[in-house]
Amino acid sequence: MAGAILALLGIACVSGVDAQGASAAATPRVMLVTEEFEPFNYIEQGKLTGYSVDVARALVERAGIAYSIAAYPWARAYRMAQQLPNVLIFSLARTPEREKQFQWIAPLARRQVYLYQLSKRNDIEVRSLADLPRYTTSVNRDDIAHTQLAAMGLAQQGRLDLTNNALSGMNKLLVGRVDLIVGNPFSIRSLCASAGVPETAIKRTILLSDDSDYYVAASLATPAATVERLREQYRQLRGTPFLHQLAVRYQVPLR
Q1: Which residue from 67, 181, 207, 237 puts its CA 20 to 30 A from 222's CA?
Q2: What is the set of domains in the chain, with CATH numbers?
């Protein structure tokens, strides 16, 4: 276990900054970890930005907590939040299965996940979840959608393609290596832009999940006092225009 933790700590950051607060000395430094998932968290001109990034930064800075921030493949960020102390992870879907695995700090947005296909693929017809074993679906490794699809038996049937990020799955869809990808209405526009195709190149099929929210959460080994300070800052932010302004800026629905 010690070797695994040291390996995690030695991973290079894709993007990172440090911040010092007046009372940081009394509170452990925290690591903010995420993935690229526009418009919630993504890298633009070498800087990590997005709705969830701005909310998470605001919480730790208002709390006066020193921090670093970085984007990783989701499976790596998720593992860090499971194994290391003083780690905040976002945008993490809050589900019953995960309820006791993290300390939940602040809701970000409603999670709506659909399956998408190429518009020109007339050979694909998905009307219900029962149709999925006929096709290969790409999904981010260790994402909650991965868990859901695997529970349906798709992995055992060889119908799941696991990727490190959504753009990889999109590129596989465009060249016909997979039949379906997982996405949501807020990120699919940006995903198409990153892949260099119009939104009309793909079309939405069926809803996969609409029963959870995206959150900022802390690892279980993060001190309770730190978590409560961050929760208090979120409660205070809800009484200001800050969250509404961010939602308008990034075009996400305010939770």
Answers
A1: 237
A2: 2-110+213-250 (3.40.190.10), 111-211 (3.40.190.10)
